[in-house]
């Protein structure tokens, strides 16, 4: 197997199905989105870059909270869905392997990078671009699959950084990186960030009414996502 994920827009194949799944799905609506929004804090009047924006579900929440949102995704269909859902936002097709040349230095207040780190080969390069476009007092909020949950599912050496292929429940074929938590922390440091807060993820209280059994399980075990809020390191030029 190749040691790269590449730039094929994997979610393009099932973009509309994913929107249907993620809009009210337990993991997205009651686990990851609430966690990311909490760490982003008050975004009223803020310019937020929604990196790998998907079908615009996070952007919709952010605009509703008073943010100005600029977003991008590798999947053209995801960008279309975002534009339809959030006409107030600005969305474009963009590969995270390429520089964000259309964004000036220090031009955004927040960067949201939800559940997409695993699909990027040069993660440090992408994170450095986020640091470049962030204002000095800005913050990056990223979420990723919990590495312990990954290891419990896939086995092998927890500390090996490797690409795996998987077929999800709806038949979606995905290819992404597995990496331990220490690697994500190191990549943030290399990119010029300091970790301000790390949350290992719990489903929202409201999720108990949606799926009590799943809520109870995820409230006790690291099987879902984790979320990080990082700030630009002022010691790095």
From TrEMBL:
An MF annotation (GO) of this entry: methyltransferase activity
The entry's keywords: Methyltransferase, Transferase
The keyword Methyltransferase is assigned to this record: yes
Residues covered by the Methyltransferase type domain: 49-142
GO biological process annotation, one example: methylation
Domain of life: Bacteria
Entry's EC annotation: 2.1.1.-
Enzyme class at the top of the EC tree: transferase
The protein's name: Class I SAM-dependent methyltransferase
Native source organism of the sequence: Amycolatopsis silviterrae
């Amino acid at each position: 197997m190749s040691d790269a994920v590449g730039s094929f827009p994997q979610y393009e194949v099932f973009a509309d199905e994913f929107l249907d799944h993620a809009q009210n799905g337990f993991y997205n609506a009651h686990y990851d989105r609430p966690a990311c929004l909490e760490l982003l804090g008050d975004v009223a009047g803020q310019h937020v870059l929604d990196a790998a924006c998907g079908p615009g579900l996070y952007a919709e929440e952010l605009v509703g909270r008073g943010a100005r949102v600029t977003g991008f995704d590798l999947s053209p269909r995801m960008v279309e869905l975002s534009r339809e859902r959030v006409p107030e936002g600005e969305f474009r097709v963009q590969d995270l392997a390429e520089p964000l040349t259309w964004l000036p230095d220090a031009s955004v207040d927040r960067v949201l990078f939800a559940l997409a780190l695993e699909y990027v080969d040069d993660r440090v390069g992408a994170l450095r671009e986020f640091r470049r476009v962030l204002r000095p007092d800005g913050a990056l909020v990223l979420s990723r699959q919990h590495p312990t949950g990954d290891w419990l599912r896939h086995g092998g050496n927890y500390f090996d950084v490797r690409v795996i292929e998987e077929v999800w429940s709806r038949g979606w074929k995905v290819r992404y990186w597995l990496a331990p938590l220490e690697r994500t922390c190191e990549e943030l440091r290399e990119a010029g960030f300091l970790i301000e807060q790390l949350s290992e993820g719990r489903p929202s209280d409201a999720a108990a009414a949606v799926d009590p059994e799943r809520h109870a399980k995820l409230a006790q075990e690291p099987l879902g996502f984790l979320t990080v809020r990082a700030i630009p390191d002022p010691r790095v030029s």
